[in-house]
Automatic annotation (TrEMBL):
Highest classification ranks of the organism: Bacteria, Bacillati, Bacillota, Bacilli, Bacillales
All copies of domain ABC transporter, residue ranges: 1-248
PROSITE patterns according to UniProt: ABC_TRANSPORTER_1, ABC_TRANSPORTER_2
GO molecular function: ATP binding; ATP hydrolysis activity
Keyword Nucleotide-binding: yes
Taxonomic superkingdom: Bacteria
The protein's name: ABC transporter ATP-binding protein
GO biological process terms, semicolon-separated: peptide transport; transmembrane transport
Keyword Methyltransferase found: no
Signal peptide: none
Length: 311
């Protein structure tokens, strides 16, 4: 709710102005139990930062993360410990998130030890069950990450995230580093696991194809703000010029689609344009867009858009 994350940069010279990077700039949304909510945008849009704030890997500058209506920042030590079990994050790069010197068995046992779950035998059983759940087996127990393929490594990362039986998982570019054929396998695995363990997913990706395939609802982020949000079918007919441009950069077989082509780069988060943050790249820009910040319009109860064209 109303999340902001600003990073203050030290002044380069004593007389120069202090700059701040506005990574997340007033983001609010609600995740519903059992759904897959997609956060999509170009790099630098603030989607990863939003995900990391939600699991409280980093602290927001202001705003709240509410879990079942309760402010996570006000949790006591015990509540926080329970919360840490229920909420997990899976990162893009399985090389970086797996300790190269530890076996798969150790990697999967460590969270159980930290959270004091089961005795050794019970842990062994849980580890083997989890390996089967992610399409691996006992033969992987003694292997090291470098002995695995990219897809196998990502399966181990997923197993490590799910071994505590969380309720909610943030998947940050969870398949982006994989070959397309392996991507589909991992996405299908994540779907199956979601069903089995009744998981709620926050799925962060720059890849619209993947998000459309995988998610129930989607929020499109640009320079730290959600510019459009709706169900997957709402976003089949995108309303915000930025979403339109993003969607038309997906290659289609239909040559008759009217394309909106994005020009230029995303401005720096330390110099967000006045008015509508997208106005420097928008093909529909009007004079007022350069000064006046657009408000959020509810096109339907699910579908919202932040753009003066809908005033
Ligand atoms: Fe484009 Fe103006 Fe809408 Fe921003 S508010 S997206 S600049 S038309
Ligand atoms: Mg990212």
């Amino acid at each position: 709710k109303n999340l902001y994350k600003y990073y203050h940069m030290p002044r380069k010279k004593f007389f120069s102005k202090e700059t701040s990077i506005k990574a997340v700039n007033g983001v609010s949304f609600t995740l519903r139990k059992g759904e897959t909510f997609g956060l999509v945008g170009e790099s630098g849009s603030g989607k990863s930062t939003t995900g990391e704030i939600i699991v409280q890997l980093i602290k927001q500058t202001s705003g709240q993360v509410l879990y079942k209506g309760k402010d996570v920042s006000k949790f006591n030590a015990l509540q926080l410990k329970v919360w840490r079990r229920k909420v997990q994050i899976v990162f893009q790069d399985p090389y970086a998130s797996l300790n190269p010197k530890k076996t798969v068995q150790w990697i999967l046992r460590e969270p159980l030890i930290i959270h004091k779950i089961g005795n050794r035998r019970e842990q062994d059983k849980r580890i083997i069950d989890m390996l089967h759940d992610v399409g691996l087996d006992e033969s992987f127990l003694k292997r090291y990450p470098h002995e695995l393929s990219g897809g196998q490594r990502q399966r181990v990362v997923i197993a490590a995230a799910l071994i505590l039986h969380p309720e909610f998982v943030v998947i940050d570019e969870g398949v982006s580093a994989l070959d397309v054929s392996v991507q589909a396998q991992i996405l299908n695995l994540l779907k199956a696991l979601q069903k089995k363990y009744r998981l709620t997913y926050l799925f962060i990706s720059h890849d619209l194809n993947v998000v459309q395939y995988f998610c129930d609802r989607i929020a499109v982020m640009y320079l730290g703000e959600i510019v459009e949000m709706g169900t997957v079918s709402d976003l089949d007919e995108p309303k915000h010029p930025y979403t339109k441009a993003l969607f038309s950069s997906i290659p289609t077989r239909d040559v008759n689609t009217s394309e909106t082509v994005l020009s230029g780069e995303v401005p720096s988060a330390s110099a967000i344009p006045e008015g509508c943050p997208f106005h420097t790249r928008c093909p529909f820009v009007q004079e007022r867009c350069k000064h006046e910040k657009p408000v959020k319009h509810e096109l339907t109860t699910e579908h919202t858009v932040r753009c003066h064209l809908y005033d």
